């Protein structure tokens, strides 16, 4: 069975006039929390050749993806970046997921709210509000691949907070 991990970026710098939203970086408190959550996730997870990381190309999302890749043992150079996840409606994020190759068994999406929480709710028909660095773990039905994922087709296995 295939598993989808929806990971909200770590806590970032406050909004301001000096730096635009896309370029905001994670703060030390956010980095510490992301490390803790990635370590928790690593306890029950084995990265393999069928694992794929896709991240929003916004600074705070890709920085979070780098933290998780180091702790989980995923090659940082293999992280795919896309602007399509940044400030995206959940259906746009789902389109990125639906495009994953059939051989991908573990898909990690690093992005932003409200899109990720709304996507989790749509896929699982559960109410989830992901805080920064939280990971929603969704299981696809047996014999499903990511191209078939749609509303109500995934089971929420849990949220690491």
Automatic annotation (TrEMBL):
Domain of life according to the entry: Bacteria
Q: Which InterPro entries match?
A: His_Pase_superF_clade-1, His_PPase_superfam
Coiled coil stretches, renumbered = none
**CDD domains attached here?**
HP_PGM_like
The name this protein carries in UniProt is Phosphohistidine phosphatase
The taxonomic lineage of its organism, from the top, reads: Bacteria, Pseudomonadati, Bacteroidota, Sphingobacteriia, Sphingobacteriales
């Amino acid at each position: 069975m295939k598993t989808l991990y929806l990971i909200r970026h770590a806590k970032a710098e406050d909004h301001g006039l000096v730096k635009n939203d896309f370029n905001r970086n994670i703060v030390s408190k956010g980095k510490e929390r992301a490390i803790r959550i990635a370590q928790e996730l690593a306890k029950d997870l084995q990265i393999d050749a069928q694992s794929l990381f896709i991240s929003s190309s916004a600074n705070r999302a890709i920085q979070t993806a780098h933290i998780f890749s180091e702790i989980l043992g995923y090659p940082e150079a293999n992280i795919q970046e896309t602007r399509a996840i940044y400030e995206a409606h959940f259906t746009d994020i789902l389109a990125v997921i639906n495009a994953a190759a059939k051989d991908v068994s573990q898909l990690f999406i690093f992005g932003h709210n409200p899109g990720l929480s709304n996507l989790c709710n749509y896929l699982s028909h559960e109410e989830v509000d992901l805080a920064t660095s939280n990971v929603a773990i969704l299981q696809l039905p047996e014999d499903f691949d990511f191209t078939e994922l749609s509303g109500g087709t995934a089971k929420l296995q849990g949220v690491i907070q």
